[in-house]
Each structure stands twice: as structure tokens, then as C-alpha cells.
Amino acid sequence: MQSEVEKTAGISGVLVAAHELKAPLGVIRQLALTLQLAESKAMRTRLESQLIRTTEQALKQVEDLAKIPQLQKEQPVFELVSVRAICNEVIHEVRPLFCQERRRLQVAYHNRTKVAVTNQNLLRSVIYNFCTNAMRYSDQESESQLTVQDYHDKIRVSVRDFGPALPQSIWRKLQGGHINQPLPVAMRPGSTGLGLYIVSQFTQVMRANFGAIKHVDGTSFYVDLPALEQPGLAL
Q1: How far is the C-alpha of 206 from the C-alpha of 76, rounded, in Å?
Q2: Do residues 76 and 205 touch, judged by C-beta distance below 8 A?
Q3: What's the CA dihedral at 193, 195, 199, 200 to 10 degrees?
Q4: pTM tops 0.85, yes or no
Q5: In sequence order, what are the residues at sequence separation of 6 or more whose Cβ sits closer than 8 angstroms to the Cβ of residue 105?
Q6: Which of 76, 95, 128, 205 has the highest CB neighbour number within 10 Å of its CB?
Q7: pLDDT tens digits for 89-138?
Q8: CB neighbours of 202 closer than 8 A, spacing ≥ 6?
């Protein structure tokens, strides 16, 4: 049987998830109401695009959460994955979100080792979560940075934001290896707590290292992927 501490922790995690999933629903409702009052075709088109993007983003998070119980039962399929190709797919997907929020995303590829041994769908979700979290916690005068580089015998994908500092308690949990439930993150309201939980669960089954680097003016979240030298493969 579950202890009272475990039950309390579980309830807390559910409340965090519910609170964070409520936010995009509120945005969707407001966009739908505003759309009804739109006076021009251009405004309606812009609002419809925002409505679709916000809905898709919320659906992705729900789908990621739904994957976790199944991943705990069955190991995902591992394959040779071009890390840059996955990053390019995510960048193409999140660019409109960054533009919608008047944010910028810079990309830098420094890795000589191009191929990782991982699951491409889970990796795509991890990078997507990194990017959307960074988007929320960088102001309009700053830009987030996605970097891919060699790190010892691995490929490191990191996303740097310029938001509020990551609390010491959360950083310590990441240093311990993983996060077992959604956690509220002080100074970073929104979806970061839920996003970190999703990334932590995915990287565990990916056999990848997940961590964070604290900066004076923000945080870099990263994932280290098992690398494989395959010079003949397409980038």
C-alpha cells in the first residue's frame, strides 16, 4: 500500500499537471472568443493560426503524458538517428510559436559525430519541450539558443534560456538523475515543471543523461545521447 507521503506527493503531481494544462485551455478559449469579434479577414486568419498552434501544443503535451505509462512497461525501439535532422524538424515546428510570442531562437551545430543511438520520436519530444520551455522564459529582448556539440563520447543537445534562475531544489533533483512527478518550479510558472517531468521520464527509457546548467541569467537544459561514428550516413 502507498504511504501517506507517497499519496500526498502523487496528489501534488496531479495538481501541478492539471494547473499547467489549464493554461493553454484558457488561451484557446480567449482566442476563440476574440475570433468571433474579429472585424477583418487578416485578423481572423491570424487568430485562427494562433488557435491551431496553441491547440497543437497542448495536444502534444497530453500525448507525451499518455506515453509515459506505456514506456514504463515496454522499451522503445532504438535506432541510428541523425541528431541534426531531428533538431531541424523541431526548429521548423517551433519557429511559428517563437514568432507568435515575439521570441527568437538561435541554432548552432558544432558536433562532428552526427549519429546517435536513440529513439527518434522520444528525442523529438525532448527537444521540443526544451525549446517551448525556453520560449516562455526568455523576454522579447533576448533569444534562446539550441546547441548540438560533441561531449566526451556522446552528443549533447542543449537549449539555453535567459529566464529566472532554476531553484536549487530542482537542480539537485536533476543532479540525482531524474524527476518522478510533475513539480511546481518557483519563479518559473507555466509548463516548465510538467515539461521537466516528461523529459526526465523519456530520457530514462532512452538511456540518455538529462541535466541542467545554472547561469547567472538563465538555465541550459541538456540531454547527452549515446553516439555512433557513421561517416557514410547522411547528415
Answers
A1: 8
A2: yes
A3: 20
A4: no
A5: 91, 94, 95, 98, 131, 134, 135, 143, 144, 145, 146
A6: 128
A7: 999 999 988 887 788 899 999 999 889 999 999 999 999 999 988 887 77
A8: 64, 67, 71, 122, 125, 126
